[in-house]
Amino acid sequence: MTASLVLTTAWMPWPVLAQATVQGRAVANANVKAPERAALCMACHGPQGVSQIPNIPSLAAQPKTYLENKLVLIREGLREIPAMKGTLDGVPDTELIALAQYFSAQVAPKSATANLEKLSFQRGQELAKSALCGTCHLPDHRGRDQVPRLASQHETYLRKVMQEYRDNPGPGRDTVMAAALYGINDAQLKDLAHFFAHSP
Hints:
By secondary structure, this protein is mainly alpha-helical. The chain has two domains: 3-104, Cytochrome Bc1 Complex, Chain D, domain 2 (Orthogonal Bundle), CATH 1.10.760; 118-197, Cytochrome c-like domain (Cytochrome Bc1 Complex, Chain D, domain 2, Orthogonal Bundle), CATH 1.10.760. It is built from ten helices and no strands. It has helices spanning 3-10, 14-19, 38-45, 64-75, 93-104, 118-130, 133-137, 155-167, 175-180, 186-197. It is globular, with a radius of gyration of 16 Å.
């Protein structure tokens, strides 16, 4: 797999994606062995990719294609994440594919249970519905193909990323999301993040 192939897949027209279907939830796959480099990822992203740090995303149960795309973008310098700068330099596609396969096969993080704000959750749920988030991220927001899982992701991370997409998407970020979040204020972003984080 080459960078050009992954990036071509990343920009597939969204109407095509909306027609795709994915069956079932990600579950642990004992046949997928952790690549050696996975230990480096887990130092920040947590055991089996379940992050313990609020501003660092969980990788567990993210769609394989999504992870492959992001890893290539980071390696090629097209998606700048200061904390990851240089960590993927020279890593061949085969290793990136193995990492994506491993983390995508892990059990999804448990949804947040602490500090549930019922009204914020309900507002976020309604906003996600009216904004049609489920069209691309699937109705249960587990993600598919190159569209990330939102359900049970860290609330802090979600708020930060949605603000970046809305205000300063920058290189390597999908402009479709910038358009989708246009006009959504900070309070609404908080409600959305709260809803996704507390969703199974």
